[in-house]
Design goal:
This protein is α/β, with parallel strands linked by helices. It has a domain of 231 residues: Ribosomal Protein L25, Chain P, CATH 2.40.240. The chain has 15 helices and 27 strands. The structure holds adenosine-5'-triphosphate and magnesium ion. The site of adenosine-5'-triphosphate has 15 residues, from helix 3, strand 8 and strand 10.
Amino acid sequence: MALQTAVAGPSFLRDLYTAAPYNSASFNRHQNLMSKASPNHFIRSIASNDIKNGKHEYVYTRFPPEPNGYLHLGHAKSICLNFGLAKDLGGRCNLRFDDTNPEKESDEYMQSIKDSVAWLGFEWDKLCYASDYFDELYGFALELIDKGLAYVDDLSAEQMREYRGTLTEPGKNSPNRDRPVAENRALFEQMRDGEFAEGELVLRAKIDMASPNISMRDPILYRIRYAHHYRAGDKWCIYPMYDFTHCISDALEGITHSLCTLEFQDNRALYDWILENITLQKNHIGEAGKAMPRQIEFGRSNLEYTLASKRKLIQLVNEGHVNGWDDPRLTTLVGLRRRGYTPASIRNFCAEIGVTKKDSVIEMTVLENAIRHDLEANAKRAFGVLDPLKVVLTNYAAEQTESFVVRNHPKDESMGTRELPFGREVYIDRDDFMLDPPEDFFRLGPGREVRLRYGYAIRCEDVIQDDAGEVVELRCSYDPLSAQGKTADGRKIKGIIHWVSAAHAIDAEVRVYDRLFNQANPGALDDVTEALNPNSLTVFDNAKLEPSVIEADPQQHFQFERVGYFCFDSQDHQPAKPVLNRTVSLRDSWAKAAAKG
Ligand code: ATP
Ligand code: MG
């Protein structure tokens, strides 16, 4: 495979350091970030007051995904909030699948969600499924019918919309609203027995068609669906709606604080109405819940240049714009994991963005900084050359080799040392050479001198070009008296570049990712594919790595000095054919580009 595309924006290799590779200011920021692991926020205050005041014995939350896709970064926020709150306050948290839409849900999605929650580092108290409550939910629906609080309606979807009214006009009553209880009950049983077609009848709550809150204008509780359910099979052809299911599931599990995103604000009145009007047995309200569960809304967080909607992600996967749900360019949790994000970095990102009462848009740098901080402290350093240019040291004996003992981490001695082999031929990155460099280019050019990091100073004596004029090899001299960062005559060498010994190099494929979208809010577009960045993937299929990399544990993360942070690709890497992903660049090249204008 040839080099596919160029990286948009400034080349990531150009943001080199020439001085100390470690920056203590960023280390301190990292420490601050770590200390935010248990953030204080309004929900935490509410929950701890409820315990203090004796409303509940302890906090019991749940994370309730629908198994209709893979989890993304938005879900991580909800996971960290629900599990984190329970953990911090000594409570419990369930993982509950909100699985009441049979057409869209599957076992594959359910399994992947379990894996992602566990990968993020959380343990659920109970694993629950709304579909396990179908019998009970049906029973509660009958109870509402018997109390005259629910009725079977046959208005068409269009009529229903028309009867519902608008924000400024009240709705009007359905002609079926006063159907006698016995008739409602018989019809609902017939719905369950499969005697009606999809869309023919629904069960509605009888609340108030003039309510200023449209959610309270006789909302639908049950609809008919002839679809196979991935867990319940074909037992049911009527399925409860989200609003009916969610509050009852919460109550059945003894949930104390039901945390959801802002779009459910208007549904809270319905949540409470349903729980007030059904008879929950004492054993329905778990030990923690002396009182009914309380719904509390928080703002969604969406990351710029990414999608946080399972439905839109499915389109990208199904139409082949990305290579599956775990494509490293996606901010699905499986994609981030494959890209090299650690669970701690995602938890820290969630702590950093916090929990507020407003929706928020988060800049990409916040996520990238979270992983940089983690890897800066924890990734082993190594040398990797992505786009190699051969350098022959003409005054270095052909048969000679040596090695330099170097630290695996500049700040952390406990990470040990390694031997970096060196010989007559080395590879450097093509970006570190220019045929006609400007004055302030502190790397290699004809006649110029540069230091090979940890090694010798070299001077470019001769440039070999092919017929097309492309530089194919550099002939350099090395200064044998320039080891250990010094020169015998005290001359200063400004530029320091990374390199890999050609005789010892490991060949590898390295995948460098850029933003998948070139618009900040692709989710707002009707067709998200219009905003795809054509240069989101660059494959370096001839990369050269120092040999220690391949001896490492495949879970290991690396900082290729001056290049970025990398990990092995979990799908395609093989020891005989290494494949690595760039997790993140060393610095934010987009911010730099924007600043330059
Ligand atoms: P999607 O549109 O991707 O399906 P969803 O909200 O419908 O998202 P669910 O599986 O129903 O997905 O969500 C599980 C939980 O995660 C819900 O409580 C939901 O509010 C929360 N959640 C989803 N996306 C975000 C987000 N961007 N920010 C915060 N919380 C989110
Ligand atoms: Mg949903």
